[in-house]
Specification:
- It is rod-shaped and about 180 Å long.
- Strand 9 and strand 10 form a beta hairpin.
- The longest helix has 60 residues.
- The strands form two sheets. The protein has a five-stranded antiparallel sheet.
- The chain is built from 15 helices and ten strands.
- It has 448 residues and is an alpha+beta fold.
- The relative contact order is 0.05.
- The protein has four domains: 95 residues; 101 residues, 2-Layer Sandwich (Beta-Lactamase), CATH 3.30.450; 92 residues; 149 residues, Heat Shock Protein 90 (2-Layer Sandwich), CATH 3.30.565.10.
- The two termini are 84 Å apart.
């Protein structure tokens, strides 16, 4: 574009000087013609004192020359300004294209690479000289390249913008996860002559997601391990309390009764003291039994989950006065020890939340075991989830419940129950139920 300026001489100022020079030359030639061909005046008179008719003709031509030179100079100046603006725009576009953080390439309608920036060359692992002119799927390809579902074909067929995730393959065989955006490359008249592709390398993001997922899995495994250790420790403590402290208290109760029976009738004060001691020991035995049950209900190990849930519901009703209705399908549900403990602890946590936040008068519990999954629903007639912030999924109690459920590959959902209160649904798939389950054969028979 700069060579066009040379065709115009010195630009706008040169055109004006050229106009002046041509006017002077024309004046000299016209004066010489009168002297040579008409001989009606000398050279001085022809130059500086022409006739009115001759003067008018010369001035008309000179003014025309000068006007042309002025207009041409303005045109050249405007054109140069436009060319400079276009060059600046092209330079800016080139700079943006070449320095873009994303890999970019432009392909024609035959999918041959017309241009590629340095980021794309580094992403592909090839110099630009080995990229330009080759078909796009020969340089950096994915599973949909050169097929009927090719995104570039969609752009050529009229889609304004196509964005998709894909694992692109380099010529050396390594895979690069990318977010690819393809847009039409148009001429000024709107005709699509090619496609502009933008490649965002998301390898780091994918790696971070994998690391986060692995970290989450390790945390869940650690949580499950800690919960298992805690349950084992609870069982051990419950056994020790029951076996050692319970036996001692029982023996002490028998000794106090023996002593009470052998006191003389006239020792009324001592008899009353031994009687109160016996009552205190009995109360202590009941407290020990209650503590052992809370640490590890023996009924959970002896007769299964259904009976343990019913026992816990009865304890809950007697302690709080809130009615608790239990429905189980089938009547007796037995799961693996680990899963039974998890469901029982989830049920305990749910009842605790109901007491703290729900302001309920009735709780409905539905347990169902099918060949496909185990389902538990606990709902109440309280104020509901919207009335209190305590039943959000990010509260600590529900986070623990959620982690327990996820540890078995299950799902947890909070919703509004039929009676207007909160409702908690838990679904555990059958593979998690049968894993390590001594009752798995019975479950398989039930499935049949």
């Amino acid at each position: 574009m700069r060579t066009d300026h040379k065709l115009w001489g010195m630009g706008e100022n040169g055109l004006i000087l050229a106009g002046v020079l041509i006017s002077v030359i024309f004046w000299l030639l016209e004066a010489s013609n009168h002297v040579i061909f008409f001989a009606d005046s000398d050279m001085f008179e022809a130059l500086f004192a022409p006739t009115w008719h001759e003067l008018w003709m010369r001035l008309t031509v000179v003014v025309a020359f000068m006007a042309f030179a002025f207009i041409a100079s303005r045109i050249v100046k405007a054109r140069r300004r436009a060319e400079d603006a276009a060059n600046r725009a092209l330079t800016e576009v080139d700079q943006v294209f070449e320095t873009a953080a994303d890999g970019m390439r432009i392909v024609d309608r035959e999918f041959r690479v017309l241009r590629a920036n340095e980021t794309f060359a580094n992403l592909v692992g090839l110099p630009k000289s080995k990229i330009i002119g080759r078909r796009c799927h020969e340089v950096f390809w994915g599973d949909r390249c050169d097929t009927t579902g090719c995104p570039l074909t969609r752009v050529l067929n009229g889609d304004l913008d196509v964005e998709y995730d894909a694992d692109k393959v380099r010529p050396d065989g390594t895979s690069v996860p990318c977010i690819v955006s393809a847009t039409p490359f148009r001429q000024p008249d709107g005709t699509i002559v090619g496609i502009v592709e933008d490649f965002k390398d998301i390898s780091e993001r994918k790696r971070a997601e994998r690391d986060q997922q692995e970290s989450g899995e390790r945390l869940r495994e650690l949580t499950a391990h800690l919960q298992s250790i805690r349950e084992e420790e609870r069982s051990r403590i419950a056994r020790e309390i029951h076996d050692e402290l319970g036996q001692v208290l029982t023996a002490l109760s028998l000794d106090v009764r023996w002593l009470h029976k052998r006191l003389p009738a006239e020792q009324g004060e001592l008899q009353e003291k031994t009687r109160s001691m016996g009552e205190l020991i009995t109360t202590t035995v009941n407290s020990v039994s209650r503590i052992c049950s809370e640490l590890r209900p023996a009924i959970l190990d002896d007769v299964g989950l259904s009976a343990a849930i019913e026992w816990q519901a009865g304890e809950f009703t007697s302690r709080t006065g809130i009615a608790c209705n239990i429905q189980t399908e089938p009547p007796e549900i037995k799961l693996s020890e680990e899963l039974s403990v998890a469901i029982f602890r989830i049920f305990q946590e749910t009842l605790t939340n109901i007491v703290r936040h729900a302001q309920a008068s009735e709780v409905d519990v539905h347990l169902r075991l099918t060949p496909r999954d185990f389902f538990m629903r606990v709902s109440d007639d309280g104020v509901g989830m919207e009335a209190t912030g305590a039943q959000k999924m990010d509260s600590f109690g529900l986070l623990g419940v959620k982690e327990r459920v996820r540890g078995f590959g299950g799902e947890l959902a909070l919703c509004t129950g039929d009676k207007g209160g909160a409702c908690l649904d838990i679904v555990i798939p059958t593979p998690a139920i049968a894993a390590g389950n001594k009752e798995a054969p019975a479950l398989a028979g039930h499935a049949a």
